[in-house]
């Protein structure tokens, strides 16, 4: 039962994690550890360090984010990620789609007589 | 183990496991992970050695981390550089063997068939001799071995032509099979 639940969770998070990362970078460029800490603020978005970096690499290869190295003062250089133009478009599309699907699911819950918490 | 040694070993291992991606890409991944480890370490509280271990544990083993990158990098990518010369060497070897078999097979087969034809066309001047007091058998034109004893050799025609044709056929079959695998 546990493994089945985990499988659902993995499926559920797959798309939402990528969208969350794009949304995080919408505001300003961040480096890996900052992204990780931001994600850890949300219960359903927590991932391990070892999952984040390959995921960032994949998003970069897909062209939705860019990266650059930046050294601030005496600190060691860090690899920052920022949203690309394609990524901004992608984020807009994803956000609209997400909103639509949340609305649909809530409507379906209500039709089925399931209690919905306040949004 | 000292903290820097732990980190160094982890990064060295990561570099090895990333050997399937280009060196530049692997180098950048290693640098980023190194930067992550030291940043995380700076924010961590508690004894340093256990902190390093905790940070490395969250990254997973070097092998697992590398696999995370390789899984999406190598999809649809050509095989790594090292494989190309290897297959070229193998191809070179089998090509050499192919040519050798062709030359030996066709040359010997053709010689045998030619021998049968010569005996058929020039039965008197071409034949089999026993030379050196029975120690060797010579097949030649009569002028070459004047002292040797000629033995009647009409059997040379079917034997040479059949074995020659057999050898030519066999060579062709082997060559065809080899060519398919080249």
Describe the sheet with the most strands of chain A: 3 strands, antiparallel
- DSSP strand (E) fraction of chain B? 5-15%
Q: DSSP helix count of chain A?
A: 4
Distance between the termini of chain A: 29 Å
Low-confidence stretches of chain A: none
Unreliable parts of chain B:
none
Kindly provide the name of the CATH class of chain A.
Mainly Alpha
Q: State the total count of DSSP E strands of chain A.
A: 3
The total domain count of chain A is 1
How would you sum up the global shape of chain B? rod-shaped
Map the helices and strands.
The complex is a heterodimer of chains A (119) and B (182).
Chain A: H1 2-27, E1 30-31, H2 32-40, H3 49-61, E2 65-70, E3 78-83, H4 85-111
Antiparallel strand pairs in A: 1-3, 2-3
Chain B: H1 3-17, H2 23-43, H3 48-59, H4 62-73, H5 83-121, E1 126-131, E2 136-141, E3 149-151, H6 156-181
Antiparallel strand pairs in B: 1-2, 1-3
Describe this structure in words.
The complex is a heterodimer of chains A (119) and B (182). With 119 residues, chain A is mainly alpha-helical. Chain A has one domain: Arc Repressor Mutant, subunit A (Orthogonal Bundle). Chain A is built from four helices and three strands, in the order αβααββα. In chain A, a hairpin with a 7-residue loop joins strand 2 and strand 3. Chain A is elongated, with a radius of gyration of 17 Å. Chain A starts with a helix and ends in an 8-residue tail after the last helix. The model of chain A has no long low-confidence stretch (mean pLDDT 90). A three-stranded antiparallel beta sheet of chain B has the order 2-1-3, with no helix packed on it. In chain B, strand 1 and strand 2 form a beta hairpin. With 182 residues, chain B is mainly alpha-helical. Chain B has two domains: 71 residues, no CATH class; 99 residues. In chain B, helix 1 runs antiparallel to helix 2. At the A-B interface, helix 3 of A face helix 2, helix 3 and helix 4 of B.
């Amino acid at each position: 039962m546990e493994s089945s639940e985990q499988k659902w969770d993995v499926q559920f998070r797959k798309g939402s994690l990528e969208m969350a990362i794009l949304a995080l970078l919408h505001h300003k460029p961040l480096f890996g550890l900052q992204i990780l800490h931001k994600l850890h603020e949300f219960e359903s978005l927590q991932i391990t360090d070892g999952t984040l970096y390959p995921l960032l690499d994949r998003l970069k290869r897909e062209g939705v984010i860019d990266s650059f190295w930046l050294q601030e003062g005496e600190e060691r250089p860090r690899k920052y990620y920022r949203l690309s133009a394609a990524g901004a478009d992608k984020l807009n599309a994803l956000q609209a789609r997400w909103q639509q699907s949340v609305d649909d699911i809530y409507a379906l819950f209500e039709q089925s007589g399931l209690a919905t918490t306040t949004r | 183990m000292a903290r820097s040694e732990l980190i160094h070993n982890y990064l060295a291992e990561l570099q090895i496991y990333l050997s399937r991606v280009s060196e530049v890409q692997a180098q950048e991944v290693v640098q980023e992970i190194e930067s992550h480890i030291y940043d995380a370490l700076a924010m961590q509280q508690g004894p340093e050695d256990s902190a390093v271990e905790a940070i490395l544990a969250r990254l997973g083993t070097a092998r697992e981390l590398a696999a995370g990158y390789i899984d999406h990098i190598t999809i649809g990518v050509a095989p790594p550089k090292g494989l190309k010369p290897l297959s070229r060497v193998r191809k070179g070897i089998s090509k050499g063997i192919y040519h050798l078999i062709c030359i030996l097979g066709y040359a010997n087969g053709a010689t045998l068939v030619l021998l049968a034809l010569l005996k058929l066309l020039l039965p008197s001047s071409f034949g089999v001799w026993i030379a050196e007091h029975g120690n060797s058998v010579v097949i030649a034109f009569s002028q070459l071995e004047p002292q040797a004893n000629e033995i009647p050799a009409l059997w040379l025609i079917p034997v040479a032509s059949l074995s020659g044709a057999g050898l030519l056929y066999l060579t062709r079959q082997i060559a065809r099979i080899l060519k398919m695998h080249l």
